[in-house]
Amino acid sequence: MPTLATPEVQLAYELDGRVQDPVVVLLHGLGGQLIDWDEEVVRWLVQGGLCVLRFDARDSGLSSHLSQLGAPSLADIFAGADAPYGLSDMAADLRALTGALGIERVHLLGVSLGAMVAQRFAIDYPGSALSLASLLGSTGAAGVGGPEPELLSALANGEVRSGEELAVMVARPRSAGERGELAERVKAEDIRAPRDRAALMRQLAAVVAAKDRTGELASLDLPALVLHGTSDPLVAASGGVATWQALPRARLVLVAGLGHDLPTSVWPVLREEIQLLYRKAGRR
C-alpha cells in the first residue's frame, strides 16, 4: 500500500480510477479505516467517472499512531483543555496528501469524524472543494449533534470491551443482516490494524474540542449533501439538521431508523444522492 510522509505523520492511502478524472476523497469515521468504504461503493464511483482517493486518517489503520501524545481525558477537554490535535490538523493531512498527488480540487465525501474533517478542509482551503457530502456529522455548535450520555460515558470510561460491541452500540443495526455486516467489517479492521483505544480517544478529543463551524459553513458556496439517521446515538440527528441549515446550497436527507452507520441498505439512496450532487457540481 502506498504511503505519504507529511511533516507530522505518515499516511496510508489508496487511489482507484483514472487520475485525470475528477477526484472524490472518502473520509472514514471515528476509529475507522479506509477499508470501511466498501469496494462496491468505490466501484460505482469509479464507474461513474470519478477517481477515488481513500486514506487512513492519523491515529487510524496503517497511518501513524501518535502514541507519544498519550490518551486525553475527555473531562479535561470538555473543561477547556487543549486536545492533542484538532480537526484542522487532520484537514492539513489531507491537504498534504492531495498536494503530493498533484490534485488541486476534490469532491469531499465524509462520514462522522470524516464529515467534520471534510467541513474543516472546505473552510480552511477555499476553492479546493468542488462539493461537500457531510454524512452523520455536525457543526460543532453547542446543543446539537451530541451523543447520548450513556454512550459517551461508556466511551470515556473504557467500558466498551470490543470493536464489535462499540460498532453495535453506535450503529444500532436494524436487522440480522446489518448486524452481520458490522461483524465482518470489524473483523476486517482487526486483521488489518487492531483497534487502538488511546488513538480513538485522541480523535474523539479533536471533535469535542472543535469550535462551532456554523458561521464558517455559511460562507461555503458549493453544492452540498447532508445525510443523517434519525436514530443516531453518537451524533444526534440535530447535528445533521444544523449542518444543512448552515450550508447555503445543501440538500438534507434523513433516513428513518438509521443509527450511526451506512449499511448496504442505505447505499441505493446514497448513490442516487451523490449522483445528483455531482451533477450540480458539474463533476469537473
Q: What does the secondary structure layout of this molecule look like, with pairings?
A:
Layout (H helix, E strand, L loop, with lengths): L2 E3 L4 E7 L6 E5 L11 H9 L3 E5 L18 H5 L8 H14 L5 E6 L1 H12 L4 E7 L13 H8 L6 H9 L4 H17 L4 H13 L4 H4 L6 E6 L7 H10 L3 E6 L11 H15 L3
Parallel strand pairs: 3-4, 3-5, 5-6, 6-7, 7-8
Antiparallel strand pairs: 1-2, 2-4
CATH class: Alpha Beta
In which range does the helix fraction lie? 40-55%
- H and E order: EEEHEHHEHEHHHHHEHEH
The parts where pLDDT drops under 50 for at least 5 residues are none
Strand order across the largest sheet:
1-2-4-3-5-6-7-8
Radius of gyration: 17 Å
Q: Report the strand count.
A: 8
Could you please describe the fold and organization of this structure?
Helices cover 41% and strands 16% of the residues. With 284 residues, the chain is an alpha/beta fold. A hairpin with a 4-residue loop joins β1 (3-5) and β2 (10-16). The longest helix has 17 residues, at 176-192. The protein has a single domain, classed as Rossmann fold (3-Layer(aba) Sandwich), CATH 3.40.50. It has an eight-stranded mixed β-sheet with strand order 1-2-4-3-5-6-7-8, sandwiched between helices. The protein is built from eleven helices and eight strands.
